[in-house]
Specification:
The chain has 263 residues and is an alpha+beta fold. It folds into two domains: 2-148, 2-Layer Sandwich (Beta-Lactamase); 155-256, Homeodomain-like (Arc Repressor Mutant, subunit A), CATH 1.10.10. Helices cover 54% and strands 12% of the residues. It has a four-stranded antiparallel beta sheet, with helices on both faces. Strand 2 and strand 3 form a beta hairpin. Helix 2 packs across helix 8 and helix 5 crosses helix 6 (177-184).
């Protein structure tokens, strides 16, 4: 069902232009929530530009806490502190609130919009009935996933979850295995062993994968320079970023941007 969820989110974007993100889910409930981490952000160019600033990112996180407090059972429309309109769809199972979906990227309040990247927002807001019809099945699928796959909590699985949270919270910053070990109060070898056992890959490869995904989103959704994208994605050396991007995509970042925009 996890792949069905991903496919459905992609289908909503492709067929209806709905940019869907998943928020507020308790990681202790289900291990597969980590597989949905890439969907935990608003992926339009405006929001990416806003959250690149650490202070504004903090405002966005605080606003998500406000939304969580307002969530009950009904879908509702709200506007964030930076002028982005979004529909909120609660994820509820047996009267228990598990999290919420956002369908975002709409012009909410013009007076609150920042100049940087606001051209990426959509003027036309969809009908609430359409959002309900298309998003409630997704919320139901997620509710089942979050409740019918309970985690057997062990010291090792708890550490793995902590490692993941440290990585995702600091992906835009300089981050080493030693830094993660310090944050998790254990040795570097324990971090490396636990992560590889649980994920099937190394910490550094996983970090590189996340940074490349973030860089690709910034390339496609903003007009930032390659150097700025490299730094915002956590690369301390822009040349190294260009090398890694070319190695994975078969072409330099700017050529990739032009190709995708043309297509």
């Amino acid at each position: 069902m996890l792949q069905d969820v991903k496919n459905y989110i992609d289908f909503l974007k492709r067929e209806y232009g709905f940019s869907v993100s998943i928020h507020g889910c308790d990681r202790r409930d289900n291990p597969i929530i980590n597989a949905l981490t890439p969907y935990n952000i608003h992926r339009n160019g405006y929001c990416l530009a806003v959250t690149a600033d650490i202070v504004r990112h903090g405002d966005c996180v605080a606003f998500q806490d406000e939304i969580r407090a307002l969530c009950k059972k009904n879908v509702f429309y709200t506007v964030c502190p930076y002028g982005v309109g979004q529909f909120v769809v609660p994820i509820v199972y047996a009267e228990r609130f598990l999290g919420f979906l956002c369908v975002s990227g709409y012009v909410g309040k013009r007076e609150k919009l920042l100049e940087n990247g606001k051209g990426h927002l959509t003027e036309k807001v969809p009908e609430e009935d359409a959002v309900c019809l298309l998003l409630r099945p997704l919320a139901a699928m997620l509710a089942v996933l979050f409740t019918e796959n309970p985690r057997e909590e062990t010291e090792e699985s708890g550490l793995y979850r902590h490692i993941l949270s440290v990585i995702h919270a600091n992906i835009g910053n300089k981050l080493t295995v030693e830094d993660i070990a310090c944050a998790c109060h254990c040795s570097s070898s324990t971090v490396s062993h636990t992560f590889r056992k649980k994920s099937g890959t190394t910490v550094n490869r996983y970090i590189l994968k996340l940074r490349m995904e973030k860089a690709e989103r910034l390339l496609l959704n903003t007009d930032l320079s390659v150097t700025e994208i490299a730094y915002r994605s956590g690369f301390s050396d822009a040349n190294y970023f260009v090398y890694q991007f070319g190695k994975q995509k078969g072409m330099p970042p700017l050529r990739f941007r032009k190709k995708e925009q043309k297509d």
